[in-house]
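sorry to bug you again but im stuck and you know this stuff better than me. theres a chain ive been looking at and ive put its sequence and its fold in token form underneath. id like you to explain what the token line says about the fold, in plain words if possible. anything you notice is useful, everything is just below.
___
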Amino acid sequence: MPNFLENTFTQLQKAAGRVALREIHGESFVSVSGTELLELIARARMFIRRTGIQPGERCALLGPNSIRWTAVDLALMAEGVVVVPLYSRQAPAELVTMMKDCTPNLLIASDASLAESISGIWNQAPQCVTFGDVFPASSSDPEGSLAPPNPRRDSDLVTIIYTSGTSGEAKGVCLNTGNLNHMLAFTTGWIDRLDEGHGEPLRVFQYLPFNFAASWIVMMSCLMRETILTLSTDLNKLADEIRLSAPNYFFNVPTLLERVKRGVEDAMSKRGALIRTIFAKGRTAWHRQHGGNSGGGIWLILAQKLIFAKIRGRFGPNLKGLVCGSAPLAPETQEFFGMLGIPIWQVYGLTETCGICTMDDPTLSSEPGRVGQSISGIEMKVGENEEILVRGPNIFPGYWNRPEETAKVLQNGWFHTGDQGEVNSRGNWRISGRIKNLIILNSGHNIAPKPIEEKIAQLLPGAQQVVIVGNGRGYLCALVTGSLDFAAVQVAIDTVNSELPHYRQVRSFTIITEAFVPESGLLTANGKLRRDAINRQYREAIEQMYRKQAAAAGSNA
């Protein structure tokens, strides 16, 4: 059977006369057809051969999402070169650490400034070229644009994707042809079920970076079927880009969706009394009806016509639904979008599982707070300490050059995810936390911080992040980021505390006005907290919270 890359080339040949991939720039698009993308791939393949890099050797690919990034990626794979995609917004020192680990023979960067950021701090950097070198303006399109990819076996390494490194140094996850054959057969089939009867090329918008495994899987899935994939080029204009691209679907992380929800709620709070009333009563009526009760129908009809439809229209006229992954989405957020008439399908997975373990079935109703059923062809179960274990053809063969780390997570044929969860009678999984994130108080109580953080954040629309701390301490405290009122934070924490046992209550908090961002090293590329780094950077603020609490306790003794 053809492998995933051969299928991609075949589909691009079928897309000869239509737009397959495009970038959005302001109010216009830069587009390529299937034939034009194959021609770019052919030019890149010729350049790659001239560099002398051999099949099986490694090439680092550094740059934001673009048509040329995609062409170079496909060209490297077609030549049998192992691609190491890197995040263009990550600190150069961290990128150098990754490259020192995997020792690439070549670095292809999108522009000279990115290349210089690496060579400027690494004297032994590999040969470095830019997209301008790969695609010189004076070059004519070569013959042989439709040359098939080099043959490859299921065990052949395709890519090394560095994990986000939430609790330590990033590790290179090796994915092979067999992993990708299985995963992309599933994802294209899933999209086919979602898109059944559509009749026109699917329109998908993509803003998440391709060094993120699930985002890359989205890109490959779109190229393997009849799809128009639109790439964001300016995250500062994301809302405008979404409207202009008018997608049917796009892939998200919870951060964006929760930000949209908070923004809508904040905007509604500032509207006139009538609009506020319609929104509030319409929302109540929606929840009542979806809880199996009747009543409030007129308010829901008014809200749908006057408010919900306008909010939904901000995503363009064609939106049919959203896919969300990288972290569990708060049930309230999923229900909020459902109220607007925008279904959300959740997906759960890790880089080590080729991006996906579970996914909501688009033909069935999803359960807010759960991330769907295990995908076809794999097995999942709960092990010790509620850890999720997975096995199947989607599981990676190991970490690059880290046999001990590999042996820790691959045991008796099962991959130990490090995530905690449970599955219900419908087969839908819920993710409750990370084993490594467990806070162990000096009383011996084990506490998963994420559920507490989510509850506090839900009561604080202006909060960017909530981080619970307290490992080895006698009680919990919190760091809260954003422009927030002290009293509002206190009320939110008091509300959450009232529902918790004493050992899980938050005793004190500190407000940090600047939100955590990936560039500061406090968030991963896909928005997850780097808890160890946060604890190190804010060590003094954390210590001060505990000193104040101790002093207050002493004065009250």
